[in-house]
Specification:
This protein is an alpha+beta fold and 344 residues long. The strands form 5 sheets. It has a 5-stranded antiparallel beta sheet with strand order 4-3-2-1-5. It has a 4-stranded antiparallel beta sheet with strand order 12-9-8-15. It has a 4-stranded antiparallel beta sheet with strand order 11-10-13-14, with no helix packed on it. Strand 2 and strand 3 form a beta hairpin. Helix 6 crosses helix 7. It starts with 7 loop residues before the first strand and ends with a strand.
Length: 344
């Protein structure tokens, strides 16, 4: 609404009303009440009763005597009462990873979304990391209750990432509750983007997705929140359990099992060609990740079978990674079904 000096107004949150006598700034006006008191009031707390303005009386129009400075204030006092009314903050903002083709995850690209599930605007910055140093993906603003695509990743590109980081500050036009800045790091270690089980039903997309909400804390954040006493209890509990065989993974050597049942949850509907594509994508993603880490050797367990996977794996090494040396892995540990690649 537009207010002018001389307008009759009524108070939204109080009984009575008065006349606008001056503009204090672009949000506050001075009102002379019916009792003769002049008080400052937010423009959003007023409703126009009758617009008279300077130069209009019972006898008709007369010369406008409004000072030029106040005319300019009147011109710019366009108030959206819904936007400027005080609103308590609620909600949160977070990242999500959404497959473009959830039925063929092994060849699908993925979209990284920022979701602002709050009633305030967020000023955001999203970064990615393959190690300890971060690279900026995008920065900007996202309105309340909206979502947007931040970046599109291929299968191998997403598999190389160690973490995604989202920083932000919430704000709102008009009256609002200042919020502390947010700085959330989402670890991608341990995720297998080939597996359908990684993607869950959610309230934000029509398809399954990985949604990094607060309740989906990664283990690193959980450990940080534990007290020393909690950690001691976990260790004591662990010591009482029988030891089980675990996958070998050190800085010296890493094992990657390429059997299809270790990569995807449901393989019965896949053709032999699709299975081979999934296994080769897993091989290349694991190799690229190992090359960027301190891993010295990596063993790919491909089994014996008809030899097709072993042949394609070694052909890829010869063509794309000619500087890497490879050989049959230890027969004692793996039989004839594994290839060891030396990276350092």
């Amino acid at each position: 609404m537009t207010l002018k000096i001389g307008d009759r107004v009524r108070f939204l949150n109080d009984v009575g009303g008065g006349t606008v006598t001056a503009f204090i700034d672009n949000k506050m006006v001075e009102v002379k009440t019916d009792d003769g008191f002049e008080i400052p009031v937010l423009a959003t707390e007023l409703l126009p009763e009758l617009s008279t303005g300077y130069g209009i009386d019972e006898e008709g129009p007369s010369q406008d005597t409004t000072p030029p400075q106040q005319k300019e204030e009147v011109k710019h006092l366009q108030v959206n009462t819904a936007e400027y009314r005080h609103q308590k903050f609620s909600g949160e903002a977070f990242l999500a990873i959404v497959p473009e083709n959830e039925k063929l995850l092994h060849v699908s690209d993925f979209r990284l979304y920022l979701i602002n599930d709050s009633n305030y605007t967020i000023h955001y910055q999203v970064s990615q990391s393959e190690g300890s140093v971060y690279e900026l993906i995008k920065t900007g603003e996202l309105e309340a209750d909206t979502k947007m695509v931040i970046k599109k990743f291929g299968q191998s590109g997403l598999g190389k990432l160690k973490s995604l980081r989202m920083q932000g500050l919430f704000s709102k036009e008009g009256l609002y509750d200042p919020q502390p800045g947010i700085d959330i790091t989402n670890s991608l270690e341990g995720y297998s983007f080939y597996k359908a089980a990684e993607f869950k039903e959610n309230d934000y997309f029509d398809c399954k997705a990985i949604v990094f909400k607060k309740e989906d804390l990664n283990m690193e954040e959980v450990v940080k929140s534990l007290s020393e006493n909690d950690i001691l209890k976990v260790k004591q509990s662990k010591d009482t359990k029988p030891k089980t065989h675990q996958k070998k993974k050190t800085n010296d050597i890493e094992e990657i099992d390429l059997h299809i049942e270790e990569i995807v949850d449901h393989q019965t509907d896949l053709s032999n060609g699709e299975i081979l594509d999934i296994q080769m994508s897993r091989f290349e993603t694991a190799l690229e990740t190992a090359l960027k880490s301190n891993t010295r050797r990596i063993v790919f367990i491909h089994g014996v079978g008809n030899g097709k996977l072993k042949h394609e794996l070694r052909k890829k090494l010869d063509r794309k990674y000619p500087d890497l040396k490879y050989q049959d892995a230890s027969f004692k540990e793996y039989g004839y079904g594994a290839t060891m690649v030396s990276l350092r």
